[in-house]
Amino acid sequence: MSETHELSTVETEPIADPGLPAHEPRPTDVDEKAETRAERQVATLFGLSTIFTLLFCVSYFWLEVGDEPDVILGLGASNLALGGFLGLALLCIGIGMIQWARKLMTDEEIIEYRHPGSSSNEDRDESVKILVLGTEESGIARRPLIRNSLLGAMGALGLVAIIPLRDLGPLPGDKLFHTIWKKGMRVVQDVDATPIKPSDMEIGQLINGEPGIFFEEDDEGEPVIEGAELQVEKAKAAVVIVKMQPDDITPSKGRENWGVDGILCYSKICTHVGCPISLWEQQTHHLLCPCHQSTFDLADNGRVIFGPAARAVPQLPLALDDEGYLIATSDFTEPVGPSFWERG
User: Which distant-in-sequence residues (6+ apart) come within 8 Å of 231 by Cβ?
Assistant: First the structure.
């Protein structure tokens, strides 16, 4: 046992002659002009990478896409230019790094002893020294031309990640704060656009609704809103209309006149992750979201009483028009749907 232990702790020396050819210096090791020339070549490659990155950005904004795109050799000019310039930028950095390593970094064989799995403090200190030595031998500290041109090329590549973010679409501005609801707009059923009178509803009933403007026409008989815009506005402005005993309602300050004969109107969009909600419990006046079971008390200003939702479902103030139909007296006074970072 002791003999085996002694053998395992004996450090063997490396092979004196492992069969490697004799080390020969490179031209850049012995010729100062060759070293300078190689340094300029590497910096030129990094500089070209920066230029190609800038050309990528210019092509992104300059070349037309869409229904009538610019064409080069029968191919989409935008895709061809973006892919080509980005590829050349990365290629120049790669070639520059290879040239730097082959011609300018230290070119000597290094002997490394094998150590036990756990390193001692001395070994750790030695590792730090090796890292410092590697930094010194790379020449990055004493070759500012290469260092600065590389930093410029790598920094310019950051534009490649930032510029295409524009394709995510225009910024929403204040669109998340508002819907199409406005004063005097009728509340209609979402199936057949039928306007709603208080007498049409019974205690405990829920109706899915939307703004009546979706079905209006202009002076030429064309729809006011149509297509994709119609679907977006419908999704944001969807509501539920419920009727309960007026004595069961406990409105907060300022909302005393937001209902009509026990009829209240709330956003149909859950404030958790935006699921449509219309599961209505008549006896408890609770509105349940089917996605994550957030529960709102519509008799108490849409207050959250259960689930992950963090805020009450927004309420739409109601009134009656001259013909006795339900109308909105304004837009929602707070953003509908899930919370977002700009919301105060």
Answer: none
Q: Which residues contact 287 (CB under 8 A, 6 or more apart)?
A: 240, 242, 266, 277, 278, 279, 280, 281, 295, 296, 298, 302, 313
Q: With residue 207 as reference, give the H or E element that holds it.
A: strand 206-211
- Sign (positive or negative) of CA dihedral 203, 328, 237, 247: negative
Does residue 56 carry a pLDDT above 90? yes
Contact indicator for 318, 263 with CB cutoff of 8 Å: yes
- Cα–Cα distance measured from residue 201 to residue 240, given in angstroms and rounded to the nearest whole number: 13
pTM of the model: 0.55
Helix ranges (H only) for the chain are 2-9, 27-30, 32-62, 77-103, 121-138, 144-162, 227-237
Q: Domain residues of the chain, as ranges? A: 23-168, 175-328
Buried b (16+ CB within 10 A) or exposed e, 175-205: eebebbbeeebbbbbbeeeebbeeeebeeee
Question: What is the rounded CA–CA span in Å between residue 232 and residue 86?
Answer: 36
Backbone angles phi, psi at 228, to 5 degrees: -65, -35
Residue type, 192: D
Q: Helices 32-62 and 77-103: crossing angle, nearest 10°?
A: 160
Rounded Cα distance between 261 and 247, Å, is: 10
Fold of 175-328: Rieske Iron-sulfur Protein (2.102.10)
Answer for the pair 266, 243: CB distance below 8 angstroms, yes or no.
no
User: Is the confidence at residue 3, as pLDDT, over 70?
Assistant: no
**What are 63-86's pLDDT values in tens digits?**
888 777 888 777 788 889 999 999
**314-333 per-position pLDDT tens digit:** 999 999 999 999 999 999 99
**214 pLDDT higher than 80:** no
Q: Which pLDDT band holds residue 5 (cuts at 50, 70, 90)?
A: very low
